[in-house]
Amino acid sequence: MNLKVERLKGQGLRGEIVIPSDKSVSHRSAMFAALTGGVVEVKNFSMGADCLSTLNIVKTLGCDVEFLADKHIKIDASNALKKDIYKLDCGNSGTSMRLFSGIMASYETETTLFGDESLSNRPMKRVILPLELMGAKIKHHNFKAPLVIQGKELFPIDYKSPIASAQVKSCVLLAGLNTCGVTKVTEPCVSRDHTERMLKYLGADISINGTTTAVKKSKLEPKNITVCGDISSAAFFLVAGAIVPESDFVIKNVGLNPTRTGIIDIMKSMGADIEILSQDEVCNEPVGDIRIKTSQLKGTTIEGEIIPRLIDELPVIAVLASQAEGTTIVKDAADLRNKESDRIKCLVSELTKLGVDIEETPDGFIVNGKTNLRGGAEVECYHDHRLAMSLYVAGLVCEQPVVINEFQWVDISFPEFLGLMNLLH
Ligand code: S3P
């Protein structure tokens, strides 16, 4: 589907929206439910294609999955993980492939994990190496999928991860969950901690000390889970609200886990008129409502420990930076090149077509603002949901209409995106 985006005329974005389910938390809810051996209801499960890949995997593993209502599922894991051989289709989802690698390596089964073309080109060495240190036997093609894992009883390790990656950390911790002894992971700086929070909620023996997390072999309790809203989805609305003239609206039920709120910190430091209205806690995850208004923005430098706290938001932050006075520099984000697309190269090429003054660097990009974006171009999203939505937000402030090719890729994480955008204008 090729989508035409036009500049908003008249009143800006107004009203109130409820942000749908967090992708990372939804993945983990279905995966961990499958490990309980019992019955777990998950409310507000993401209907994005990535989380549906995980749900299909959970079914392949022998769980009975029933939809009780909209986004409300019941997972019965009483017959899970009883077979000797599994073939698991991860689709486009890196989280499914990397987390299930850790889970399956510790069970006595043979598992093949495969995915689409994009996923088959993404780096898996980051999970293969620590799993091999634990004694896992994994066949791969130059450290790429498909991965064939001969599961067995593993040894605990004390792993010093060279990158701050929640997928790597979670992979090792999930292998450790079914391994005798204490498995530890230390990261260079803290990445998102949804695995740790949910494992604790389900009764696992897990402890955190600074950047080190330790887990002991544990049986998970089948407890019901409610998934919070996704701050990475909210980010497109936060940026749209800040840059579209005369906007003022409220985004409800946003996950406010501090390992994910880098976008809020950066927007505040750039001068955004952003306010947290209320806070609550759902299944060990903080949530809240956010009000955003059109803002006078200034450039900033984004580097170091904040990067893992906003890694998925960097494409839309580039759009924000184009509407900020001065220069915005993003550094230490080379891993953006390993996401669903090479997010540095693709972002720079497509935003340049719209008139953004943006330059590629090896580990990030530099944006000079503020620019009146001309638009009037056809852009590609390179099968990348976050690029598609970032280009849409840019299109809202372009002088001429923008056509985004293959916009349907938004369905990977956020099928509700266009409907919610339309509610605000
Ligand atoms: C995710 C972790 C992040 C993020 C991805 C989801 C997760 O990847 O980019 O969208 O659910 O654990 P890395 O851990 O590889 O940085």
Short structural description:
The chain has 425 residues and is an alpha/beta fold.
Structure characterization notes:
This protein has 425 residues and is α/β, with parallel strands linked by helices. It has 14 helices and 23 strands. Helix 8 (231-243) packs parallel to helix 13 (385-395). It starts with a strand and ends with a helix. The mean pLDDT is 98. The structure holds shikimate-3-phosphate. Shikimate-3-phosphate binds next to helix 1 and helix 6. Shikimate-3-phosphate is lined by residues 24, 27, 95, 165-167, 170, 191-192, 311-312.
The name of the CATH superfamily of the largest domain reads: Enolpyruvate transferase domain
Shape: globular
Number of DSSP strands? Answer: 23
- Mean pLDDT over the residues: 98
Which stretches are poorly predicted, pLDDT < 50 over at least 5 residues?
A: none
Strand order of the largest sheet: 2-15-17-16
Question: How helix-rich are the residues, as a percent range?
Answer: 25-40%
Q: Which percent band covers the strand fraction?
A: 25-35%
Structural class: alpha/beta
Number of domains: 2
- Second-tier CATH architecture of the largest domain: Alpha-beta prism
Total of DSSP H or I helical runs spanning 4+ residues: 14
Instruction: For the record, give the distance between the C-alpha atoms at the N and C termini, rounded to a whole number.
Output: 22 Å
CATH class of the largest domain: Alpha Beta
How are the SSEs placed, and which strands pair?
Layout: E1 3-5, E2 14-18, H1 23-36, E3 39-43, H2 49-60, E4 64-69, E5 72-76, E6 85-89, H3 94-105, E7 110-114, H4 117-120, H5 125-133, E8 137-141, E9 144-150, E10 158-160, H6 166-176, E11 182-186, H7 194-201, E12 206-209, E13 212-216, E14 225-226, H8 231-243, E15 248-255, H9 262-269, E16 273-282, E17 285-293, E18 301-302, H10 307-310, H11 314-322, E19 326-330, H12 343-354, E20 357-361, E21 364-369, E22 378-380, H13 385-395, E23 402-405, H14 417-423
Parallel strand pairs: 2-15, 3-14, 6-7, 10-11, 18-19, 22-23
Antiparallel strand pairs: 1-23, 3-5, 4-5, 7-9, 8-9, 11-13, 12-13, 15-17, 16-17, 19-21, 20-21
The structure holds shikimate-3-phosphate.
Shikimate-3-phosphate (S3P) binds next to helix 1 and helix 6.
